[in-house]
């Protein structure tokens, strides 16, 4: 029997489950909250999560629960719900300990970043952001990965880093949680655009151009929202952008690819159990960017495609037809 868990994971989708497995890879006790009773049952009885992370055996030191109350009072709690559900889940806690935000998105109903939601709900809590180029299935199989663990206070980094670091998972400190979370939220929308280009068969040059110009949008937006440009050049910004824009393992890239191949956004969203965060974030990102006076033409194109206002083929023509200017 292992000791009581000091670290918890809120949300047992692919990423929450993979993080729990990474944390438990040295036998440490980890408690994970799952929304679905069948996920709780499968993790506890069979040490697997066939719904959200199939074919990955899990450590028996991971204990799942459907009781949110039992997630209070832990030393650290990784928050890994989809962005649109983070508020409603966190609202049910009253004393969650240090929060490590791992969701990548902007709340549609309020235009809020995850950091702002968590800080409003728990003004006294220590809050960090964990973000980087990290596909769940690779982290779950202990393939090497690195991520940004961003928090303003050095003391919090010193407390959390040894709780999170494992031989195959290396966190790097950043003092800029705003930048770390913006990189993760924006890259999902840009990955949809890269998927569209792939689905249309437009080639590698076009994709590299989109990644570079998308990164310029990310930096403009981030800096306008108070991020450091340096953070956006790191793991949680450029690193995650490159990963997500280059692989069919990305749900956002695959979503965009299907759009590029002619499927509608509506049909791709219907009945979906896994999350393509960029599809939710795109319109609210566009709005927040406009509020800050920031131009994001690639994000605008993704929004037009998602709303059915334009077709996949014409978004690329429209981008190429923009007035010529400096890089
Ligand atoms: N999968 C990955 O490789 C990575 C995912 N992320 C981020 O982690 C977050 C979670 O994504 P995944 O774990 O991949 O999810 P997933 O797509 O594997 O699973 C969907 C999740 O949504 C939850 N859910 C559905 N309806 C809900 C509701 N009403 N209230 C609360 N939860 C609800 C389900 O319980 C499940 O945990 C996202 O923001 C994603 O961008 C970050 C890094 C890597
Ligand atoms: O955030 C991720 C990798 O860092 C996962 O990307 P997708 O949500 O597009 O699968």
TrEMBL record:
Subcellular localization: Cytoplasm
SUPFAM superfamilies the UniProt entry points to: 6-phosphogluconate dehydrogenase C-terminal domain-like, NAD(P)-binding Rossmann-fold domains
GO molecular function ontology, one term from the record: NAD binding
Positions of substrate binding: 104, 251-252
Keyword Lipid biosynthesis applies: yes
Entry binding sites for sn-glycerol 3-phosphate: 104, 132, 187, 240, 250-252
Recorded metabolic or biological pathway in which this protein acts: Membrane lipid metabolism; glycerophospholipid metabolism
Residues involved in NADPH binding: 15, 35, 104, 136, 251, 275, 277
Domain Glycerol-3-phosphate dehydrogenase NAD-dependent N-terminal residue range list: 6-154
A Gene Ontology term for the protein's cellular component: cytosol
Main localization category: cytoplasm
InterPro entries on file: 6-PGluconate_DH-like_C_sf (IPR008927), 6PGD_dom2 (IPR013328), G3P_DH_NAD-dep (IPR006168), G3P_DH_NAD-dep_C (IPR006109), G3P_DH_NAD-dep_N (IPR011128), NAD(P)-bd_dom_sf (IPR036291)
The EC number(s) this enzyme carries: 1.1.1.94
Residues noted as binding NAD(+) in the record, renumbered to the chain: 11-16, 136, 251
Keywords: Cytoplasm, Lipid biosynthesis, Lipid metabolism, NAD, NADP, Nucleotide-binding, Oxidoreductase, Phospholipid biosynthesis, Phospholipid metabolism
Keyword Lipid metabolism recorded: yes
Domain annotation Glycerol-3-phosphate dehydrogenase NAD-dependent C-terminal: ranges: 176-316
GO annotation terms (biological process): carbohydrate metabolic process; glycerol-3-phosphate biosynthetic process; glycerol-3-phosphate catabolic process; glycerophospholipid metabolic process; phospholipid biosynthetic process
EC class of the enzyme, as a word: oxidoreductase
Family matches, as PROSITE patterns: NAD_G3PDH
Function recorded in the entry: Catalyzes the reduction of the glycolytic intermediate dihydroxyacetone phosphate (DHAP) to sn-glycerol 3-phosphate (G3P), the key precursor for phospholipid synthesis.
Family designation: Belongs to the NAD-dependent glycerol-3-phosphate dehydrogenase family.
Protein name according to UniProt: Glycerol-3-phosphate dehydrogenase [NAD(P)+]
């Amino acid at each position: 029997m292992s000791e009581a868990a000091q670290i918890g994971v809120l949300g047992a989708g692919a990423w929450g489950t993979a993080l729990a497995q990474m944390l438990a890879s040295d036998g440490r006790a980890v408690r994970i909250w799952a929304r679905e009773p069948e996920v709780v049952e499968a993790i506890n009885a069979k040490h697997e999560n066939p719904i959200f992370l199939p074919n990955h055996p899990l450590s028996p030191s991971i204990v799942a629960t459907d009781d949110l109350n039992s997630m209070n009072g832990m030393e650290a709690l990784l928050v890994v719900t989809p962005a649109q559900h983070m508020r409603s889940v966190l609202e049910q806690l009253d004393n969650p300990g240090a929060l490590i935000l791992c969701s990548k998105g902007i709340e549609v109903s309020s235009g809020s970043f995850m950091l702002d939601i968590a800080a409003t709900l728990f003004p006294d809590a220590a809050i960090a952001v964990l973000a980087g180029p990290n596909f769940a299935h690779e982290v779950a199989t202990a393939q090497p990965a690195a991520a940004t663990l961003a928090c303003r206070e050095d003391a919090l980094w010193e407390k959390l880093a040894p709780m999170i670091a494992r031989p195959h998972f290396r966190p790097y400190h950043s003092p800029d949680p705003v930048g770390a979370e913006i990189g993760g939220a924006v890259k999902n929308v840009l990955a949809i655009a890269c998927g569209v280009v792939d689905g249309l068969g437009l080639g590698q040059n076009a994709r590299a151009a989109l990644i570079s110009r998308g990164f310029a949008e990310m930096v403009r937006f981030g800096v306008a929202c108070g991020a450091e440009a340096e953070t956006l050049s790191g793991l949680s910004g450029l690193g995650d952008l490159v990963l997500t824009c280059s692989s069919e393992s990305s749900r956002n890239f695959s979503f965009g690819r299907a759009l590029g191949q002619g499927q509608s956004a509506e049909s791709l969203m219907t009945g979906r159990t896994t999350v393509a965060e960029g599809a939710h974030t795109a319109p609210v990102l566009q709005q927040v960017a406009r509020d800050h006076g920031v131009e994001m033409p690639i994000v605008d194109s993704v929004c037009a495609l998602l709303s059915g206002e334009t077709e996949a083929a014409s978004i690329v023509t429209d981008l190429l037809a923009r007035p010529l200017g400096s890089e």
